[in-house]
Amino acid sequence: MKAVTNWINGEWVDNGIYKDSFNPATGEKIGSYSDGGIAEAEQAIAAAKKAFKESDWKNNRQLRYQVINELANQFEAYQTELIELLTLENGKIRGEAEFEFNLVAPKLRYYAAQVLTQSGRALETKPGSYSMVITEAIGVAGIIAPWNSPIILMIRSLAPALAAGCTAVIKMPAQTAQINAKINEVFAAVKSLPKGVINQFTESGNGGAALMVASKDVPTISYTGSTKTGKILMKNGSAQLKRFGFELGGKTPMLVFNDANLEAAVSTLEKAITVFAGQFCMTGSRILVQRGIADVFIKKLSAQLEHVKVGPAADLSSDMGPMIDKVNVERVDEVVKRAIAEGAKILVRGGTVLEGPLATGAFYRPTLLLVDDNKMSIVQEETFGPVATVQIFETAEEAIELANDNDYGLAASVWSTNVDLPLQVVRELNAGTVWINDWAKVNDEFEEGGYKCSGLGRLNGLAALEDFLEHKHIYHHAGILKA
User: Would the pTM count as exceeding 0.85?
Assistant: First the structure.
């Protein structure tokens, strides 16, 4: 089987350094890939810089509109292959793979529309004196994408970057190398795309990504990943006063009040724990439930989690697929063991699948723990697996205090049938997105991002363009005709 390669300056780039790709559900090899690094990053930056300076990409709105729409069309043409790869290499069950894929084309078309609808401002500040503000693309955009939802989270950064007029260098993770290569095929199929505007390489290490962050030729970085890594990137880019757009970690509190619709809440919270095997920045990993319904809520949610069928995407009856690899399975189980040692009470002890046909894969059954100390590490730190804690509160004020007592502020969810209470609570929560009686609803038209250590700037909506634009004020004193 031939190794898949990188795509730089409109050409396939093979450096002869190969590593293997694996199916996380079985541990079996599914292919190999050309492992990029510093050399590929240098080539990609040079190509993107040349395209930005010498082509009319940054100035030609009609071209950008055409390319982004054509890109959406080509992703749709590759639908079957990309969904199959998401189930095979990324471990998503089919419904989750379809969900991720179906977000891609609409997001591209939304930002294609922004290309033609974006406008500046102008004002005659006094007779004969004119000021105007226009926006210009900042230059080469560096995009560092994660492995948990590789297609949509890469596109979430790329679409506004292209709409703004930037060219792009994309570093993709090694865990999804086969998916990355198929995305490269999509790029190559966009006939109207100028050479060098989009460049993408797969990297198992971090040398290429570090070069992007340090390079003077890459003035902005859009990164989705851990808060720990985000802090490192920010430090390393400080010498350039580099612009960063970050969506980082989360520890989403789910506030369930006494008057909540229990059936709806339990059903949704089960998915909030198990979607993508909990490998999601908005996983509902902190459940806060009011005293009056705590016992019945815990009983219902525990029963539902115990009946989650863990299995490969190839089994269409699977409710939850594998984690990305066994290293992460071991990491999550150590987090759970530590929490239990610190006093967490076991409600559902799922854990590593060690026996039977699933034992060769990276499977971890859902786990639910009851805690009463908000300072415990499992409450404060992102777990990134199918594990949730339950805490009991008495009043809305206490729930808000517990929810906000955390370094993260990406998202939250409030459950109540009271017409006023949810909005009263929402305005007090330190979170970039809050759902009322729901979870994980994201719209292209509205901003997504985090407070505190959950990020910088916003993705989605109009604000996503800001990471890729400069604002230029132009003043012109024309004077006036005198009678």
Answer: yes
